Amino acid sequence: MNAYLIGLVLTAASTVYALPAAGVNTAAPFTLLPGPAFDALIVGDWGTDNSDQTAVAAQMNIWAAKTQPSAIINLGDNFYQGQASYEAVQAVNDPKFASYWKNVYNGDSIKSLPWWSVLGNHDWYTVNSQIYELEYQDPNWILPDFFYTKRVQIDTGVFATFLFIETDFLAYNAGGSKNAMDQNFQAMGWSTSAKTNKKQLAWIENAIAQANNDQYIIVVGHHPTYTCGGKDSSPDLQALLAILNKWNVSAYMNGHSHSMAGYVTNNGKTLQVQSGSGGQVSSYCAPVDTSFSAQLTTDQSLEASLGFSHLRINKNQIQVDWITSSGTLVGSLSVPARVPVSGVVPDKTYLTSPTDASVHFSLAPLPATTSVVNTKTSTTTSTTKAITPTSTTVSIAKTSLVTSSKTKTTSTTTTTTTTTTTTTTQTGPTINPAKWNQGKKCAHDPCSTGSALDPSCDKSGCLTAIGNAYPYCVNVHWGNNKAPCVDSIYDICGFVCQ
Ligand SMILES: *[C@@H]1O[C@H](CO)[C@@H](O)[C@H](O)[C@H]1NC(C)=O
Fold first, then answer.
1. Ligand 1 neighbour 267 (Cβ under 6 A)
2. Is 441's C-beta closer than 6 angstroms to any atom of ligand 1?
3. Whole-number Å distance between alpha carbons of 72 and 239
4. Where does the UniProt annotation place the signal sequence (predicted)?
5. Residue 113 to residues 290, 322, 446: CA-CA distances in angstroms?
6. Per residue in 235-277, pLDDT tens?
């Protein structure tokens, strides 16, 4: 018997599950890990706009009533075409945000939960769709940047760091991108010649290294590193897997493959969690690498089931449960709290500055911790969350954007006396923040909403300053035939560029 099968179905010690017969629409007897604990639901590949999606949403609500999660971990592929005529979203106020998301996950037990989100490949399939998802404003739509971290306190001296990462460029820079994805990569300045993939991997490894003293490190991305390893994994995703293993991360969570699967890998140190059937299901994709020490199940009814997953972490272990759209608890896996790894150092070769506009991430210091725990210990006792969860981390770039939009609001409601109090995050003397982005969406659309600008235009440094303050809006990396442009350049910088 493998010592690492701590939470495996039918082998659990502290947690007892009865595995119902396949297809039986009955939730298994269920006991939660004792609190205090962090509790969340996990769902991926959900935005199909069909009855499969709503079936999963309904079960998520039922499960949330039992477990009282603090968040929903969103694995990407948020907006498929569905009944619309386009993939992804076309605007920051696209009606899909309501009809495919907010109005679907509106059950009483989930409607107030924050969605800690990443994007999937389908979220890149319309021009600038990835940016619109980033800019969409809803208190529960948590996507502060393409790469960001969150850190929660679970118990006294016990912490979990979550890294939310963008895997699309890692997956497709060697080919295989579709629709507008390549155009979107180019618009963002992401390219292998700019070593964007190397920089992204460097950010990931260095963020993991910063969290090395935490008992749990959970990395969340869209594409599999393991579950379909050897089939869908690109060289950069394989490099990502090596980083996860090198640092003994607690878990990697992914969607993309529209099935559910789980493995205990890396000599019992790492959970590989796949939950990609939140809105559609397709055939199971087995890993080519079979060096796992535990497998969720070989039950084909699970692997071909719609569903979602449940995460719970207490001071001793991290556990994931897989639940089908008919409410069947199909299985559970867990690994113990990690100990800090030693004798390894992160590769800093390609680590870039915190506000590298071409990479769109920041390596901000770990945020102030926030306790997100619940003390629920069983489904038969009524419970109260010990502490209300709040979001912890936003990256530098998004912080600037948010500040900017607040500035705009202030100036429109008070008409005067706005500029002096709102310039603290600005750099560059020529930016007039009161004029920033007035009533317009962020001018990030290179050369589609305004004229291309020649670098020689930027004599005053205004554009570059904007790009540094708002890296979503202007690509300040001159060259590579990617002249930045903004459509409101006159208002902001006071000059017109031809
Ligand atoms: C990862 O965990 C294993 C098992 O506990 C341990 O042998 C190994 O040294 C750890 N890795 C590092 C880099 O510390």
1. yes
2. no
3. 27
4. 1-18
5. 36, 19, 34
6. 999 999 999 999 999 999 999 988 888 889 999 999 999 999 9
98 ligand 1 Cβ < 6 A: no
Question: Is 307 strand, coil or helix?
Answer: strand
Q: What is the pTM of this model?
A: 0.73
* Contacting residues for 247 by C-beta, under 8 A, at least 6 apart: 205, 208, 209, 212, 217, 341, 344
Rounded Cα–Cα distance for residues 367 and 262 (Å)? 30
24: Cβ below 6 Å to ligand 1? no
Nearest-atom index, ligand 1, CA of 247: 13
Q: Which atom of ligand 1 is nearest to the CA of 267?
A: 4
Peptide bond before 484: cis, by omega within 30 degrees of 0? no
248 lines ligand 1 (CB under 6 A): yes
Confidence of residue 361 (pLDDT cuts 50, 70, 90): low
Residues 6+ apart with CB under 8 A from 341: 212, 246, 247, 248
For 345: left if phi > 0, alpha if psi spans -120 to 50, otherwise beta; the answer is: beta
> How many CB atoms lie under 10 A from the CB of residue 438?
12
Question: For tokens 């070593």, what's the residue?
Answer: 195
Domains and CATH numbers, the chain: 38-371 (3.60.21.10), 414-493 (no CATH)
Q: Compute the distance between CA of residue 292 and CA of residue 32 in angstroms, rounded to an integer.
A: 25
